[in-house]
TrEMBL record:
SUPFAM superfamilies: P-loop containing nucleoside triphosphate hydrolases. GO terms for molecular function: ATP binding; ATP hydrolysis activity. The lineage of its organism: Bacteria, Pseudomonadati, Pseudomonadota, Betaproteobacteria, Burkholderiales. Gene3D superfamilies: P-loop containing nucleotide triphosphate hydrolases. This is Putative branched-chain amino acid transport protein (ABC superfamily, atp_bind).
Length: 282
């Protein structure tokens, strides 16, 4: 069966110019242009997006600090997905600015370049390679890394192998490494996909309703995982599950009709009458 042939195509030893085994990871090279010295990793400035005259985002301004775990909540149609689409280059705004750190103008980059710059996105539904093992899925994630692709070779570098091991532990699937991904539970698949993002060591992770469909146990585990990732990574989590938000959030942003309605601790936004009216009181 030719199912592992992709290894030959995908995995290539980094050459000396890339540090080869000497590189503990790839992230810092990819993010060479990222400057978060002012403590801000993402800055959206007056972003507007219209679809056929309807304003999905309306002068949206938002600042996310480095290492934060930010929750974005809001009613259906508030613009949460559109905001993620703008950050990742999927949707281009009609007006406004979007900056990754001090210097990277996201609106000047293509989608693949934004991934390369260090922004990873997890959509709601898990999209793992079901026929492959957990470990192979993680290894395959490196395929999107330009530097891993560039050079010739066959096996993973020691640094890459070590990264797979680290991520397996982080997502708590170390005893499932050889298991077929299709046989995992829904929650485990979600963790695996997060692990695939982590293989590229993103500075900013965007996560869309990560605990939808999870059991309570899986939701708790996910809260622990996110808490462990914050600090090293910045997490922006769009979520409707308020219990989950309560577990993880330090700061919550409420979107409504394409702009920020309220921002603060969960207690603060829950006490805001406007938020209760448009969202929490439903
Ligand atoms: N490609 C599109 N074409 C037309 N309208 C769109 C498009 N994408 C989004 N919209 C509209 O823009 C508004 C904002 O949508 P968006 O998906 O960003 O909201 P959301 O906050 O993510 O909602 P939900 O919680 O339901 O996912 C909605 O009214 C939606 O119908």
């Amino acid at each position: 069966m030719a199912e592992l042939d992709w290894r030959e195509i995908v995995f290539q030893q980094p050459g000396p110019e890339l540090g080869g085994d000497a590189q503990p990871g790839y992230g810092h090279m990819r993010k060479a242009g990222l400057d978060t010295s002012h403590g801000v990793v993402l800055y959206l400035d007056d972003i507007s997006v219209s679809f056929d005259g309807f304003r999905a985002l309306n002068k949206l301004s938002l600042t996310i600090d480095t290492g934060e775990l930010r929750c974005i909540i809001g009613p259906n149609g508030a613009g949460k997905t559109t905001m993620m689409d703008v950050i990742t280059g999927k949707t281009r705004p009609d007006a406004g600015g979007a900056f990754f750190g001090q210097t990277i103008d996201l609106l000047a980059l293509r989608e693949a370049e934004i991934v390369e710059a260090g922004i990873g996105r997890k959509f709601q539904k898990p999209t793992v390679f079901e026929q492959l093992s957990v470990q192979d899925n993680l290894e395959l994630a490196l395929k999107t890394d330009k530097r891993a692709r560039k050079t010739l070779g066959f096996r993973l570098s020691a640094a890459q192998r070590q990264r797979v091991e680290e991520v397996l532990v982080q997502i708590r699937l170390e005893d499932q490494a050889a298991r077929r991904a299709g046989d995992l539970s829904h929650g485990q698949k979600q963790w695996l996909e997060i692990g695939m993002l982590l293989m590229l060591d993103p500075k900013l992770l965007l996560l869309d309703e990560p605990v939808a469909g999870m059991t309570d146990f899986e939701t708790d585990r996910t809260a622990e995982l996110f808490a462990s990732l914050a600090g090293k990574h910045t997490l922006v989590v769009v979520e409707h599950d308020m219990e989950f938000v309560r577990k993880i959030a330090h700061k919550v942003t409420v979107l409504h009709e394409g702009s920020v309605l309220a921002e603060g601790s969960l207690e603060q936004v829950q006490a805001d009458e406007r938020v209760v009216e448009v969202y929490l009181g439903r």
